[in-house]
Amino acid sequence: MSELERILSEADMVLAGVGEEFDGMELLRTNEEYGRLCRSAAEAGAQWAVPYLHRYFLKDDPRVKKAYHNLGALLEHKNYFVITTCMDDLIEEAGLKPERITAPCGSFDRLQCSAGCEGSIVPGEAAFYAELDEVLEGRKTWQELDRPKCGICGGDMECNTLYAEKYLEEGYAESFERYRKWLQGTLNHRLCVLELGAGMLFANVLRFRLEKIVSLNQKAELIRVHSHLYQLPAELAGRGKGISQNAVDFMAEI
Fold first, then answer.
1. Domain spans of the chain?
2. What is the mean pLDDT of the chain?
3. Which of 37, 118, 128, 215 falls 20 to 30 Å from 244 in CA-CA distance?
4. Model pTM greater than 0.90?
5. CA–CA separation, 54 vs 180, rounded Å?
């Protein structure tokens, strides 16, 4: 039995943190077509649509799909919660319960008013995403793309992520409150914290916060998987394991 299997089997509850190794940016930086489309969007004044390129290029990646599928299978019979910094919503591929996921960095599948109108967040409509696909596949130009408008002020809409000029945190507030209440119930329970691919980009959301959770709960253990930032802090010595491997590859292979 591996260390991960042992800790999971003994745990009453599992907190999974999904970090930036799952967001695919390392892969996309070397993708020439992705770079070309980003440049063409910028030249057409359509930078607001660039986040959607991210999901478009990753949604059919078999490695990412397999990793998320295996994560779902791993957590299926556990009392779990997942916090992710990824904004592409591909975690939905895992078959996890939506009410057990929170994404505090936002979602490419939600739109908000770029001026920050409260209550302006809406799900992106299928017709809008279909039109975006037409642009990315060369059947339409960026200039022909109709930018969604805010139903409150009539201004432009953009993705509801922390990259928005005026990020509306109300988009994840409800799920984060469920997460906070679930987390309160982990004290004095055997807790496995499974941190997957969390680097330093959002360290205050995952790495540092998860370390604190483990340090406060003496029955908690941390499994940290990352290609190079896999080490556990000295104060958590003997209370988990660091695994030196890309987190997507690790989850795709288990």
1. 1-24+61-104+169-254, 42-60+107-168
2. 92
3. 215
4. yes
5. 29
